[in-house]
Amino acid sequence: GFDFLEVTALRRGQASAPLRVRIDNYPRARDVGGQAGIDALLFPKLFVDEAAQRLIVTGTDVFQSPTARVCNLDGSNCTARAIDAGLGPSSASKISFFNSGTPEPTEVSAAFDAVGRRLFATTTSLVPNRLGGRLIVCNVDTWLCFERPAPQVGPSTIIVPPTPTVPELRLVETAGSGLFGQGSATVLSCDPNNATPCTSHPLPAGAK
User: pTM score, two decimals?
Assistant: First the structure.
């Protein structure tokens, strides 16, 4: 450990005894997966909700569904939150060409909109009638979520939350994503407030 010396400002002519505080630099780990690995969190991403003084950790669960953990700032007292918008198992899955075409869990892209109090996530789904890229929008105060089709999106999608000057949600997808791990460079413009379809804007050839 180390000694930390705190200096206090006083009126002119006064003096104070130094306050010596014992601190250390040991890292501390918290398990946010929960239930001895049964509820494991794959591909975690961490966001700080400053307004609510909590952590939000997103990822993929063992059922291959998008999920989140809401925790204290020190990682304690985590609560599991479903962010699959009712899609269920296999809503964060893709076909593996290297494992006889069997489904495997895939990463969930996510972004936190602190001003709008929303969590945005993109995933690739193998759920019947919900195949392919999906956009999920969740209210982080009520944890009510809705989802919509979002072709071309996948684990490498860059999510740009809306701003006061740009009210649309932007999804930037590069080649190499989608249901089968393939896709083209595309920008999707989406209304963050409802489940209307997103508008696709393919990038010009050679765009970086």
Answer: 0.78
* 3-state SS, residue 36: helix
Give residue 29's Cα distance to chain centre: 20
State both tokens at 175: 């080649």
- Bridge partners, residue 120, by sequence: 111, 137
Mean of the per-residue pLDDT values for the chain?
Answer: 81
198: helix, coil or strand? coil
Round to whole Å and give the CA distance between 190 and 197.
7
- Mention every residue, 6+ apart, whose C-beta is less than 8 A from residue 103: 64, 90, 93, 94, 95, 96, 126
Structure-block tokens of residue 167: 């009210």
Do you know the residue count of the chain? 208
Cβ atoms of 103 and 118 closer than 8 Å: no
Tokens of 88: 């269920």
